[in-house]
Amino acid sequence: MSDIVIKAEQLGKKYIIGHQRENGRYTALRDVLMQNARSVWNKTRDLVQGKPIVQGDTLEEVWALKDVNFEIRRGEAVGIIGRNGAGKSTLLKVLSRITEPSAGRVSIRGRVASLLEVGTGFHPELTGRENIYLNGAILGMTRLEIKRKFDEIVAFAEVEKFLDTPVKRYSSGMYVRLAFAVAAHLEPEILVVDEVLAVGDSAFQKKCLGKMGDVAHEGRTVLFVSHNMVAIEQLCQKAMVLQQGKVADYGSVEQALGMYLTSVSDLQKVSIADRTDRRGNQFLRFTRVALCDAGGSELEQVLSGQDVYVRFYYAASEQLCDARVHVSLAIVDRGRILINLNSYNSGSAVLDVYERGFFECVWKNFNLTAGSYDCIAFCSVNDEVADWVDSAFTILVENGDFFGQGDSTLHGIVLVPHRWYSHPDLS
Amino acid sequence: MHNTPTKQTEHLLILEPGRADKNYWRDLWRYRELFLILAWRDVSVRYKQTIIGLAWAVIRPFLTMIVFTIIFGRVAGLPSDGNAPYALMVFAAMLPWTLFSSALSEASNSLIGNANLISKVYFPRLIIPTATVVTAFIDFLISFVILVGMMIWYQYAPSWSIVLLPGFMLLALLASLGPGLWITALNVKYRDFRYIIPFVVQFGLYVSPVGFSSNVIPEQWRLVYSLNPMVGVIDGFRWAILGADSPPYWPGFALSLLVVAFFLWLGISQFRKMEKSFADMI
Ligand SMILES: Nc1ncnc2c1ncn2[C@@H]1O[C@H](COP(=O)(O)OP(=O)(O)O)[C@@H](O)[C@H]1O
Ligand SMILES: [Mg+2]
After folding, report:
1. Among A33, A222, B41, B238, which lies 20 to 30 A Cα-Cα from A193?
2. How far is it, in rounded angstroms, from Cα B279 to Cα B282?
């Protein structure tokens, strides 16, 4: 039976958010009182008229999902990918009935269990055992079901010894393991999972992926949001790319991942041409920064392990041959320079300068883990600073298969290619 | 479409803006285990955290009873109901009042207190405020032991009307649930509403016939006085506990019942109206 279990038609979700009117800080008590009086009046009026009200003076509608159409068949595992704020969580919330759609319609056949967070409803004062029952019930299991799976859950979480300890005394690892163990034993017809695997140690993540893989292969329908591309590739047959609340792509996993990684939406295109907070004599001025792959197509996001070509486009006042050019890309982490890639150190300090051109830094086997990295763009020409922009752009990184082992669970910030050996100590 | 979700005739759910939930009450029944477990959580956390909390639940109404007995009974010299000792008459009202006020406070803060659940899982939201009321009921049962102790102390035997007591307990809970549901729903949107509750509780203690018998209210005002739903509840309680010779003022009691029913209807309908947007605002 490959019938359709989830069908979304013209689905939309609108949020109303309030903005405080920008008029600086309150200076006088009178202003504060006036402000409050006005807001009380507005609220009362809205209350009487039965309008939705939110804090703030002006209201803005935000469509977190718009015109979303898709069909999911029974037994399919579908990965959902998209940048932060793309509407992934909102979609899952609508499908799991936590929030009502504002437009369109969804038909769902079968019971949905949602796992939007690990350990929803866990109470720190209660023991591990009590929390298993509590969390299980919250996720929609019956008491009997939990009882039946209790031992399995405990074994999966590896917390046998601490079953009667309040979970507030658990280490964060134990807490996550227990929470996930409960969720992993859900048996709904449709399972909806948000980015919950981002927590927990990698061995446990693997175990969970294994368990979820079982679920997916048992013919249950799974919707799975993750930033972990390898996990999506392993678990899902299809993937959906959300971009600003719309379905940008829905199809095979390879196609969707490719589209996600290279999609160049205007909003996110890094542009520093209009920055005014820059230093230097502006003999040369950065106009744009682009991250490209080997084929020259622009990347929205870099995968660890990928070869990355960073291009600093510029406009210069005149053309120079063999100038001393100190061009630098520095990655800043909490105020300290984590990495500095500059033309002096790498022996490429003598370069031509064109009126319109770009400096390109080749970064083989990109060795940072998932995150967004704040970058400085700097250039001096013939020992005079020409342009210097702090926080010129950010590099968004997703974990990729850096070590070539088919695994993208990575640790730390900076990755170093390495190998371990084992030798007998014969001394 | 069949209603029983079996393998063949499968449960079909349609989500649309403003679509009324046909299966709401059935869903509520399906989630009864969650209700029980949330109630159990609230109770066990409460009694795990503080033995003092437990003692407080008992001591506070008891101390208030002593103060009221002295002020209204001795200083003001108000009469008791029938031949009941004044202290017993006050405590027989203190119980439903405390049940009402703590159920109301717990229910009113319940949604905000469970924001995390609401934004992460689906279940009929009505479960949350109703489950918290159970905690108030457990406190009530503990205080009830004190009442029994007092009756033994005063050697006061209850009459047949004591069998009606469970009905009045339920009435006290329903009286608190109506406004509680409404306020907790409003609280999600307008956080300021939580400040209303301590005020209602403070004020209500004095305008309800807790420290005195409602027989001291002049005859022509009794019906108006009964617009306060707690008047009916408390009178009923006293009647059940103290004996059949001081029955409530029936027209007033009927009015109190109507007011309770009205608030319950208002609370549930307002709650259900706002329920769907809880997750977006909380
Ligand atoms: N409760 C809410 N109130 C207002 N706006 C919200 C709310 N929840 C989400 N949004 C907005 O909806 C958009 C999509 O959010 P979300 O679904 O969480 O994205 P994702 O999970 O893809 O990162 C964002 O712009 C976010 O700010
Ligand atoms: Mg999200």
Report:
1. B41
2. 6
A interface residues, B as partner, C-beta within 8 Å = 15, 43, 47, 52-54, 93-112, 114, 116-117, 120-121, 123, 125-126, 130, 133-134, 137-140, 142-143
Instruction: State the Cα–Cα distance between residues B115 and B95, nearest whole angstrom.
Output: 31
Q: For A118, which residue in chain B has the nearest alpha carbon? A: B120
Residue ranges per structural domain of chain B:
32-281
A120·B117 Cβ contact <8 A = yes
Q: Which of A14, A15, A225 to mutate to test the pocket of ligand 1 (most atoms within 8 A of CB)?
A: A15
pLDDT digits (tens, 9 = 90+) for B132-182: 999 999 989 989 999 999 999 999 888 888 899 999 999 999 999 999 999
Residue A23 has pLDDT above 50, yes or no: no
Distant-in-sequence, close-in-space partners of A243: CB < 8 Å, separation ≥ 6: A82, A83, A86, A263, A265
Residue A197 is predicted with a pLDDT of 67
Q: Look at residue B8 and tell me whether its pLDDT is greater than 50.
A: no
Distance CA A350, CA B108 (A): 72
* pLDDT one-digit tens code per residue, A302-316: 999 999 999 999 999
Distance from residue B86's CA to the centre of ligand 2 (Å): 61
| Candidate from B17, B37, B281 with C-beta closest to A137 | B37
pTM: 0.73
DSSP-derived secondary structure for B93-128 = HHHHHHHHHHHHHHHHHHHHHTHHHHHH--S-TTHH
What's chain B's length in residues? 282
Least confident of A143-157, A171-185, B203-217: A171-185
Give per-residue pLDDT as tens, A380-403.
Answer: 999 889 999 887 888 989 888 899
Q: Is A111 exposed, middle or buried (0-12, 13-18, 19+ CB in 10 A)?
A: middle
